[in-house]
Amino acid sequence: MTSVLDSITEPLSVHLKSGTTALHESLDQRIMALAPFSSRERFVCFLRMQLRLHLVTSPLYQSAELQKRLPGLGERNRVDAILADCADFAVTEEQLAEDRSAAAAVWVEEGDAALGWLYTHEGSTLGAAFLLKHARDQLGLSETFGARHLAGHTEGRGLHWRRFKDELDAIELTAEQREQALAGARQAFAFVRASVEALMAAERAADAV
């Protein structure tokens, strides 16, 4: 009983973090093992993986219902930035169509599960500082070419994340709703992992042939 009560009283962001830590760590290790910054060709696979996540979540950022629950949500949408990055690398229309199709195959309700998806996506902005450094140092990319979607907010990554986290934690949810949010966060990690395997791992396997 105590653990159930604790899961209800702890902040939602804490509940989501504790419920996805293993998935998060495994995903990070897998991505880095596939050497996304070893060449620009490998980075494009990473970029397309990121694009698929942005395409799934973009409608959530634009949702009027979710914007009521999370004020300022709309301005956090970075899909235009990553599309510009794709244009920098001349990602083909055929490739973009494949990525849109993969994203369209995933349907996320504008309910509590969507909160988990947004938590997962927004949380990635903190780690993006590390990724941007690699992109800059190893590939010569920047916030204005190829790595726009990794750029930090003008108010700072930490503060920008804390504002989102505070808004998320202010939402009152039942225990069942919190579990739906956690399920959404886990689904987001699973989708990204599947995209990593479909794009990054497959490309590396092709190189080895």
Short description:
The protein is mostly helical and 209 residues long. It has helices at residues 2-9, 12-33, 40-62, 64-69, 79-88, 93-104, 112-139, 157-169, 175-208. α3 crosses α6 and α7 (112-139) packs parallel to α9.
Please, could you describe this protein's structure?
This protein has about 210 residues and is mainly alpha-helical. The chain has a single domain, classed as Heme oxygenase-like (Heme Oxygenase, Chain A). The protein contains nine helices and no strands. Helix 3 packs across helix 6. The mean pLDDT is about 95.
The number of helical elements comes to: 9
Helix content: over 70%
Q: Biggest sheet: strands, sense, closure?
A: none
CATH architecture designation: Up-down Bundle
Cα gyration radius (Å) = 17 Å
- Beta content comes to under 5%
Mean pLDDT across residues: 94
The CATH H-level superfamily is Heme oxygenase-like
Oligomer: single chain
Listing every helix as H and every strand as E from the N terminus to the C terminus, the arrangement reads: HHHHHHHHH
Broad CATH class: Mainly Alpha
- Unreliable stretches (pLDDT < 50, length at least 5) are none
Given helix and strand content, the structural type is: mainly alpha
Looking at the structure, the CATH topology is Heme Oxygenase, Chain A
Spatial gap, N to C terminus? 55 Å
How many independent structural domains?
1
User: Total number of β-strand segments?
Assistant: 0
- Overall geometry comes to globular
